[in-house]
Design goal:
Radius of gyration: 23 Å
Strand content: 15-25%
CATH class of the largest domain: Alpha Beta
GO molecular function, one term: hydrolase activity, acting on carbon-nitrogen (but not peptide) bonds
Shape: globular
Number of strands: 10
Organism: Paenibacillus psychroresistens
Number of helices: 9
Mean pLDDT: 86
Number of domains: 2
Order of helices and strands: HEEHEHHEHEHEEHEHEHE
Structural class: alpha/beta
CATH topology of the largest domain: TIM Barrel
Protein name: Polysaccharide deacetylase family sporulation protein PdaB
Distance between the termini: 59 Å
Largest sheet: 6 strands, parallel
Pfam families: Polysacc_deac_1
Amino acid sequence: MNFFYVINGKKLKQSLIISAAVIFAAGIVYAEKGNVSVFSPEQPSAIYNVQTEKKVIALTFDISWGEKRAEPILQILEDKGVKNATFFLSAPWSKTHPEIVARIVKDGYEIASHGNKHVNYSTLSDEDVRKQIQISNQVLTELTGKAPNLIRMPNGDFNKKVLKIAQEEKYTVIQWDTDSLDWMNKGVDNIIQRVVSKAHPGDIVLMHASDSCKQTHEALPTIIDQLRAKGYDFVTVTEMLQQTEVSKEPIA
């Protein structure tokens, strides 16, 4: 015996609308968990590390003030044969230390932006955020002959607004996965232990070459030696981003 079902056209339309709404809602929930879905185009985000099985690590150094620490750190990198590292330079420091900027370029290290004013950009107006990024871009381009495309915000501070403006200015925002906390000056052994114990493939390590960080240059040789002993190769942040998959953190 055959059975035939007659479906009311109006009810069918209602059912399809409800089904579509459920699927759309599921897509939104999925996106809010930090995943990419067809309903949510990828938002601007900051990069903390790269997911890779290769034992590569990016040493990064922020510089905002002083002239006593940068050159010793550059000399250590040269003496240890570390040919790849990334320096995030603030515009005011770069303008007053063009000879050190020139050495960083000559030594072949990557230069990225650390903004202009050393303030929390999330507290600034849209116009002022854009201005800070553009001023730094102009200064670094004039000093190095090359426009940077990576930026680390002062104090690592940002929000969705800052990320969006940085993206509009053709920048990728770089954070870190391992923080040396060298700015706290808690001792050479403490800095070494934090970096070496937390390091992992695809890691971006935050250190400083500003004068307020008085122990970084003393810890750096051992950090390099111990990471090499673990089989790590040193790369720039740009080289790191060429690995398989970057790890981004969603911003609330």
